[in-house]
Amino acid sequence: MADNSSTNAYWAANIRIITWCLVIWAVASYGFAILLRPLLSGIPIGGTDLGFWFAQQGSILVFLALIFFYAWRMNKLDKEFGVEE
């Protein structure tokens, strides 16, 4: 990764991945758990309603999945640009 255009492409791809991860996390934690909670309250899951489940468990599980996705995708991106460990 010697030239400037390659460095810019790497960081642009990195920022794009981070942005999408943050959007997904915000939709899951803020959107489903807070804004859409009244709409999801009638759907039962695990002894409670889906809105409460997203507020308590779902957003955490989505966050953990995003951590693993980000690590996997960044390893792939690092290999593409020749900067892997």
Commentary on this structure:
The protein has 85 residues and is mainly alpha-helical. The protein has a domain of 34 residues. Strands 1-2 form a two-stranded antiparallel ribbon. The longest helix is centred in the first third of the chain and has 32 residues.
The tally of strands reads: 2
How far the N terminus sits from the C terminus, by CA atoms, comes to 13 Å
Mean pLDDT metric: 88
Q: Which word captures the global form? A: elongated
Cα-atom Rg, whole angstroms? 18 Å
Helix fraction, binned, reads: over 70%
Question: How many strands, what sense, and barrel or not for the largest sheet?
Answer: 2 strands, antiparallel
Unreliably modeled segments: none
Secondary structure layout plus pairing:
Layout: H1 4-35, H2 37-40, E1 44-45, E2 48-49, H3 50-81
Antiparallel strand pairs: 1-2
Helix pairs in contact: 1-3
Pfam families: DUF4212 (PF13937)
InterPro entries: Na_symporter_ssu (IPR019886)
Domain Sodium symporter small subunit: 8-84
Structural descriptors:
mainly alpha, two-stranded antiparallel ribbon, elongated, Sodium symporter small subunit domain-containing protein, transmembrane helix, 2 strands, 80% helix, 5% strand, 85 residues
A few lines on this structure:
It is built from three helices and two strands. It is mainly alpha-helical and 85 residues long. The chain has a two-stranded antiparallel sheet.
